[in-house]
Fold this sequence. Notes:
binds zinc ion
Amino acid sequence: MEEQDRYSRQTIFPGIGREGQERLGDSYAVVVGCGALGSVISSALVRAGVGRVRVIDRDFIEYHNLPRQLLYTERDIEESLPKAVAAERHLREANSAVSVEGVVADFNRTNAEELVAGAAVIVDGLDNFETRYLINDVALKQRIPWVYGGAVASSGMTATFLPGGRPCFRCFIQTPPAAGTLTCDTAGVVNAVPWVIGSLQAAEAIKILVGSPVVSRDLLVLDVWTRSCESMPLEGFVTEDCPACSGTYEFLQGKARTRVTSLCGQNAVQIWHAGAVGMPLPEIRERLAALGPVEGNELMIRFPVGQQELVIFYDGRAIVRGTRDEKVAKAIYAKYVGM
Ligand SMILES: [Zn+2]
């Protein structure tokens, strides 16, 4: 089979065709979050021949990711690779003709606009609502279509939000679910769910990129355990006083100086503090080395603090492992990084 036949099964399909395939080749897609959903989404886009794919993820790979996160291997864990770095490597192996870029970063309001600029579609591979509101803001502001997907326990849902087409995601879910009510931490997740949802998201993204007239206008909810599937028209979710729809991007403009988040499925708390952004990692390392043993590389450093461990990343973000208590985590952060 010759290289030029690589996409023959897509060009034969009338919904894509040669013209659609060319459009894919000229397209740029951004996948935010590369866990279970993002593994499937980015694989589908890269293998389908989307010309440029950027994958953004802030985490490192852990063993409890492997049952679902198809892109990663035990070797990636042994090599302590960030997900974005391992994803880039594996995706390039799948299709060397595509420009793949793994970005190790916490997608937040300070970098969101820059990270998605110029994309023809944004695909959500996230695990938290706050960042989805941020995608919604930046997608509306830059008029980029985006594809939402979520998976928990045995069920998942997906919807596509188009610029100018109401409702937006903020209309659709006006306030995020209370912390700890429904997460993969408390409810678990069946691996097939993110795979099905991620595949549906990838199909939507491909439809958008080839300019298909049949982009979905529904919320699809399915359950792999009860084998049920429901489609609801998005129109029913339009909210009259939605700030995002009227051009007020609250999540993008957020005034918060510090964000503290208990991490899903882990005995850990993440802290982001505006004052730490741009703080040189070698400097922090040198300071901490005077107090005890420090390990790490140019992307992150690890510093044990009693029963906990402080992990500081190059972008100013930190994770305190060994506690779910946000106060304990903040205290450690304040003492060793400063806030
Ligand atoms: Zn809205």
